[in-house]
């Protein structure tokens, strides 16, 4: 495999990982009822499943917006999210958006993933956004891990609601690899 082939292959790995994680989010949404999707109340987990889904998809949207091809100076802003949206309350809509975002992630090109991107993020609620230099691929990897983390929270919430979840749901790849070694 040539150098360019290796870079293209490596660049698509985070894409495939995120698509897989979004597929698991979709499957979780399918496995709950409308009432379970919006229900909160688990001690220590004030946010219902729908809020976690919205939060994860907001991160995907921030990344996709920042990596648009027509943007000459790409910026990703994860902290600029709208809360209380339809994604939090409408399961059917959330399933549709999940599928759509998988398609959009699949369509990201290798060049945009390797290109530099600025990430603007709040590190304190009373300070302006800080600026960090990154790449599209690195941010894609971050959004994947962030989604896996929230899948763990969603799986715990689903179990609380009486829905049996697969043991691996929400477990990081490094944890799953370590489990195979034991």
Outline of the structure:
The chain is mostly helical.
Describe this structure in words.
The protein is globular, with a radius of gyration of 17 Å. It starts with a helix and ends with a helix. It contains seven helices and three strands, in the order H-H-H-E-H-H-E-E-H-H. 59% of the residues lie in helices and 8% in strands. It has 182 residues and is mainly alpha-helical. The protein has one domain: dinb family like domain (Four Helix Bundle (Hemerythrin (Met), subunit A), Up-down Bundle).
Helix content: 55-70%
CATH superfamily: dinb family like domain
List unreliable stretches of 5+ residues: 1-11
Average pLDDT level: 86
The best one-word shape is globular
CATH class: Mainly Alpha
Report the sheet with the most strands, covering strand number, pairing sense and barrel closure: 3 strands, mixed
CATH fold-level assignment: Four Helix Bundle (Hemerythrin (Met), subunit A)
Continuous helix count: 7
Question: Order of helices and strands, N to C?
Answer: HHHEHHEEHH
- Share of β-strand residues: 5-15%
Taking the alpha carbons of the first and last residues, their distance comes to 33 Å
User: What's the count of strands?
Assistant: 3
Backbone CA Rg: 17 Å
Give me the CATH architecture, please. Answer: Up-down Bundle
Domains (count): 1
Alpha-beta classification: mainly alpha
Strand line-up of the largest beta sheet: 1-2-3
